[in-house]
Structure prediction request, 105 residues.
Amino acid sequence: MATKRQTLKEFQLGRGYTKEDWDAVDSPPLTDEELARMRPAREVLPPEFFEAIEEMRRARGRPKMDAPKVAVTLRLEPEVLEKFKARGKDWRSAMAEELKKASRR
Prediction:
């Protein structure tokens, strides 16, 4: 989950930049005239830029699976659950394997 960063209004020592860096960056608010002259990024930047961005987005995260597992809610008898939990920390996989075997019968 992304965290919201605080916008600093004045220089603070020890944040990874110098006072000279802070003073060199001057971004006053845009005027109405500047805002009116702005154009969409797709009109200004080459198509290759957006293709590269899209490719980078596709490359992120877990690869897509052909048959992903499905999350379910299941109510079980306490003794059944305790028996599987007694097998160790991988008890969910053990339960899934047992259910898979039972479904083949």
In short: Helices lie at 19-24, 32-37, 41-44, 47-59, 78-85, 91-104. The chain has a mean pLDDT of 89. Residues 53 and 72 are 35 Å apart (CA to CA).
